[in-house]
Amino acid sequence: MAEFAATQAYPDEAMATQAYPEGQNGENGQAQAAEPEKKKRGKPKDELAPPRPKNAFQRVTGEARKKIKEERPEIATDLKAMGLALKEVWEKTPEEEKERMTKEYGEEMAIWKPKWAEYKLTPHYKEFFEVKQDWVDARMRKKLIKKLNKDAPKKPKSGYMLFAGEIRERVSKEVMEAGGGMGDIGKKISEEWGAVSEEKKAELANTSAGMKKKYDIDFAAYKETADWANFCDERAKLENKQIQKKLIRTRLDEAPKKPASSYAIFRSEVMPKVTEENKGLGCGELGKKIASMWAEVSAEKKEEYAAQSAKFKAQYEKDLVEFKRKNVYTSFLMERQVAKAKENKLLKLRTLPKRPMSAFAMFALEHKNDVEPGKGEGKGRDALKKLYEKAREEEKAAFIEKEKELKIKFMEDTQAFKEGEKFLEFKNVEKKIKMEFMNEATKVLTLRFLSDAPKEPPKSPFAVFVAQKRKASGEADGPPKSKKERAEEITKLKEEWAKADLQTKYDCEVQKKELAAKWKDDCKEFMADETWKEYLAECKKLKVPVQSILKEKKKILRKLKNGMAILPLPSKPESCPAKPPSAIRMFARDKLGEIKDKAEIPKLWTELDDESKQKYQSEAEEKGKAYRQQIQEFQSSEEGKLYIRQLKSTARRNKLAKAKDAFLTDLPKKPASALKNFISKNSKSLKIKNPQVKGADFKKLVMDKWENLDEDEKAKFTDAARAEMEAYDKKMEEFKASENWASFKKAIKVKAKRKMQKAKGMGFSLPAPKKPEGLPPKPLDAFKAYCKEMAGQGKALGDLAKMFKELPEESQQERRKQFQEQMDEYQQKTAEFDKTPDGRKYSAACASYAKRKRLVLAKIKFLKDEPKRPANAFSLFCVAKRPEIATEFPDLKGLGPVQGKLGEMWKDLSAEDRAEWTEKEFKAKEEYDEKLAEFQKTPEYKKYSAIVSRLTKKPGVKKAQKKTGVALPPAPSNLPKKPASGFFLYLSSQKAAGNSVNIAKGTESWRELGAEGQKKYQDEAAALLVQYEKDMKEFTKSVDGKKYLRLRAAADKKGRLMKAKTRFLGSDDAPKEPKRPPSAYFIFVQETRSTLPSGKISEVAKQLTELWNNQTAEQKQAFQEKAAALKEQYDKDMAEYKNSANFKKYDKAIKNINKKRGAKPKAAVKAAKAAKAGRGRGGGGGRGRGGKAAPPSKAAGSDSDSDVMGSDEDDSSSSDSDSD
């Protein structure tokens, strides 16, 4: 892309410089196979740049250089001699020739300069400039190495270089005599090296290796000198300087240029003229000349230049802000911080102790010559690893021990270094670098993301007053004032504010609150936008703190002496009603415009007559009543309950903090345990000895040390801890007898409240039934009883479980047996208690509580998205007219009077006006019904319905088929709806007219209509019924209709089956079906489950399965015998159950429902007669024209459409027959 741009800008020069590479045909453009071009050495050259013209000296010396090389080849490589020869040629050149070439050079430069200026704007020039600058930077680094490492040991020569040094003088002489150059000398040496024998090469290689060994020793010693340290510091500074300049060139190349000053603008105007008039002057002289001219410029002219400069500066600042919003500037900041941090690390941490080698690294260094070098399996590092695995344990232990010693020394040296000045300087510089980056990054992110954030409102009423004055004078949108002008303005406004009346100040206070509330809402809206989310992500990426645009979020907490904080009270929700003002406050508000000092208000109130006072007091009482009603509604709302709960929690915590701060200042401090004292004493030494062990491994190491500690040593820690604990207990007894403790207990005492069982995260609570006094307590199982016995030892639950498992089998069996006896006794007592009045009452209360809790939980869980029931016509009218009431009747205050007025307005409405609101109610009801129907199809509602059906089902009670728990298929959208009768059409018309008519009144008015009045509605109902039957007939022929009727028939059949079961086997006197007995495995589980510690069901099940599998055949035989006895008893009970009268009736009913019923006898006779007589023209019993004989009529249970429809008569007849 860059080459294309350069070619377009400079076609002549670019085409001239584009030579075809070797191996490519220029005529047809077909590429030939060519070797990759060698990387050019030396200073880079830009092939696409317009070639700069040569001056007179360059032309003369360029032509002369070739001749001198041919005539005097001995000075071709001698730069000094060549320079003197060229100087001599230049001096002999005639002056006329020099002037001619100089004139041509000036003309060529006039053409070249615009081309060069244009080319510098191309992307290719920028790319080439970076390549060239990288070469310059590398050259500077090499010069630094030569300059500062003069005394450094020289690198040893290789075998080839030693050989070249021996023969270079001879080869150079031969090549020069033959007319060759430096390149020919290198080729000649390379050819002779190829002819050298292997013995000679090996000898030279050995010599080079010896020199290398000596160089390594000398260079290691040199690294300890100050010269090397100085070189490292200067190199780090130079590299950072070059990186910083490169970042500015590459990342800030699109940044706006700094604006010119007034003097710079003047200089750019006069520079061409001054240069033309003073051609012989240098840059310094020209600068002095222009400076003297600037001194003579008039003040008015200088102001013009200053205004022009200010305009440029304003534009520059605007462009700079736009540039800083780009991602490229953020990248620049990050890369600059990284470069500075790297320089700081290299300068300040150069002498930081190096981490020692590991045991394997030391082994590898010692045995690296024992393996084949290279990469891959069996070579290099892989071979050393295998060798290390096979090494003797003694050898490994020696390396490991050496590693520990080196690590201990490393940690000590590192600690000493961190306590020195270098590390302190490093941390200070690191802090400055981070602070610089953080400040600039914060500004940039503010420009990018928070420039459109809501501006903070005025903080005081005076600030509102100042803003109003500035807006009124038109200064708000004007140019910014100076600091002095602003100070003078504020002084004048303060004087005006002091003279303002109370009404003005009150209005400013109200406006301040309104602006603050609006600002808060705007901030919340802004923080919900995508811009704020992008800002948070960018802050996280750059690791800078997030600016809080809502200052109230960071409330300052007041700290107490004991370190605890006094929490701020939660902010009031918007729905919380404001407390109304008192009578004297309302009086003061009316007098705000008349008085200037608030101190006069109490005096004026006392001087007020009783009649005027009564006016304010009555108004205050009315507002107080309305407030009390509103606050009661707020407290019963979910938001109010949450606010009150938060308020109480904060008050309780603050109360506890203040009580501790006031009364527990002398509370004795609890001493540490023996283990803690051991850890604090030995952890430091253990860390030094085991530096590689950290985290959980170090904790395990300490615990192992404690467990394996000598009993005498452990006794020292234990006795000391016991003595401290005894002293602490004694001090606590004394403290608890003091007045401070009594005052503390009194301060934190709260009233006892009935415990409420609260569902987690559900936002409701249900009072659990209180346990009666006679209810027997449930015994603890074997493991829990063991835990209670061991409670004084302070063991964790996991440790107790291990200890319980380690108990002898006899002890465990004894505990389990004891628990089983207690459990049998508990079950017997519970059964006796359940027969008592208190027991039955408690059982019923528990069942009711469980049902209510499940229903509430199901409603909260599954009916979150249930559509809200719409308001009726009167409610819609009230919502629309309430604002009008407030405007037209301002004296009406409170919910009751306003509601009464709305009721009067509703009664005064005409039938047409009332019908409008009724229509709105019907539309809202239709929308609600549609939404409700859609919601009732959702899985959530079906789950809720299933739970309600299970919980509300009562066995033995006859219900309608829809309430038997059988889910009917959803009705398709095209299912015709059965029309209403004439009576209900009449009621609907009355309701639409706004007449609220119930069934009783509607029936009476329906009778009063008579036959003539009813005829209108009866005819309408008949027409609707005819249309319904027609639509139903079409529906039964459709695919959806057939599917729905088939599913409906299946649901009806399932309902009849459930109805039969409820009828014959659901009553209280009906026999109960015996419960299937458990298997041998489940009998084992029932007996063993209580002996295991509590845990996850899956883990307990796994343990039980393992225990069962580990049982011997004899042990399993006992459970199998129990299972067999239970099975035998179950079979006897089942036979008796099936032989009962109720079961036989139920079985008969099931058979009647399931069997395929044929045609009735009379129908069969008629069918036979019809078969003999023949139907149609077929002359036989066939169907249609000449068809085969008709098959027997299908039974009622078949799949024919007529049977699928079903009928209530069939159901009732089957039920009657079943009852026999």
TrEMBL record:
<feature type="region of interest" description="Disordered">
    <location>
        <begin position="808"/>
        <end position="839"/>
    </location>
</feature>
<feature type="DNA-binding region" description="HMG box">
    <location>
        <begin position="50"/>
        <end position="120"/>
    </location>
</feature>
<dbReference type="GO" id="GO:0006357">
    <property type="term" value="P:regulation of transcription by RNA polymerase II"/>
</dbReference>
<feature type="domain" description="HMG box">
    <location>
        <begin position="50"/>
        <end position="120"/>
    </location>
</feature>
<feature type="coiled-coil region">
    <location>
        <begin position="1109"/>
        <end position="1136"/>
    </location>
</feature>
<keyword id="KW-0539">Nucleus</keyword>
<feature type="domain" description="HMG box">
    <location>
        <begin position="256"/>
        <end position="324"/>
    </location>
</feature>
<feature type="DNA-binding region" description="HMG box">
    <location>
        <begin position="668"/>
        <end position="736"/>
    </location>
</feature>
<dbReference type="Pfam" id="PF00505">
    <property type="entry name" value="HMG_box"/>
</dbReference>
<keyword id="KW-0175">Coiled coil</keyword>
<feature type="DNA-binding region" description="HMG box">
    <location>
        <begin position="1074"/>
        <end position="1138"/>
    </location>
</feature>
<feature type="domain" description="HMG box">
    <location>
        <begin position="1074"/>
        <end position="1138"/>
    </location>
</feature>
<feature type="DNA-binding region" description="HMG box">
    <location>
        <begin position="867"/>
        <end position="936"/>
    </location>
</feature>
<protein>
    <recommendedName>
        <fullName>HMG box domain-containing protein</fullName>
    </recommendedName>
</protein>
<feature type="compositionally biased region" description="Low complexity">
    <location>
        <begin position="1161"/>
        <end position="1173"/>
    </location>
</feature>
<feature type="DNA-binding region" description="HMG box">
    <location>
        <begin position="153"/>
        <end position="223"/>
    </location>
</feature>
<feature type="compositionally biased region" description="Basic and acidic residues">
    <location>
        <begin position="808"/>
        <end position="819"/>
    </location>
</feature>
<dbReference type="InterPro" id="IPR009071">
    <property type="entry name" value="HMG_box_dom"/>
</dbReference>
<feature type="region of interest" description="Disordered">
    <location>
        <begin position="1154"/>
        <end position="1220"/>
    </location>
</feature>
<feature type="DNA-binding region" description="HMG box">
    <location>
        <begin position="976"/>
        <end position="1036"/>
    </location>
</feature>
<feature type="domain" description="HMG box">
    <location>
        <begin position="353"/>
        <end position="418"/>
    </location>
</feature>
<keyword id="KW-0238">DNA-binding</keyword>
<feature type="DNA-binding region" description="HMG box">
    <location>
        <begin position="353"/>
        <end position="418"/>
    </location>
</feature>
<feature type="DNA-binding region" description="HMG box">
    <location>
        <begin position="256"/>
        <end position="324"/>
    </location>
</feature>
<dbReference type="InterPro" id="IPR050342">
    <property type="entry name" value="HMGB"/>
</dbReference>
<feature type="domain" description="HMG box">
    <location>
        <begin position="668"/>
        <end position="736"/>
    </location>
</feature>
<feature type="compositionally biased region" description="Basic and acidic residues">
    <location>
        <begin position="62"/>
        <end position="74"/>
    </location>
</feature>
<feature type="DNA-binding region" description="HMG box">
    <location>
        <begin position="577"/>
        <end position="635"/>
    </location>
</feature>
<feature type="domain" description="HMG box">
    <location>
        <begin position="577"/>
        <end position="635"/>
    </location>
</feature>
<feature type="domain" description="HMG box">
    <location>
        <begin position="153"/>
        <end position="223"/>
    </location>
</feature>
<dbReference type="GO" id="GO:0005634">
    <property type="term" value="C:nucleus"/>
</dbReference>
<feature type="region of interest" description="Disordered">
    <location>
        <begin position="1"/>
        <end position="74"/>
    </location>
</feature>
<feature type="compositionally biased region" description="Low complexity">
    <location>
        <begin position="1188"/>
        <end position="1199"/>
    </location>
</feature>
<feature type="domain" description="HMG box">
    <location>
        <begin position="867"/>
        <end position="936"/>
    </location>
</feature>
<dbReference type="InterPro" id="IPR036910">
    <property type="entry name" value="HMG_box_dom_sf"/>
</dbReference>
<dbReference type="GO" id="GO:0003677">
    <property type="term" value="F:DNA binding"/>
</dbReference>
<feature type="domain" description="HMG box">
    <location>
        <begin position="976"/>
        <end position="1036"/>
    </location>
</feature>
<feature type="compositionally biased region" description="Acidic residues">
    <location>
        <begin position="1200"/>
        <end position="1220"/>
    </location>
</feature>
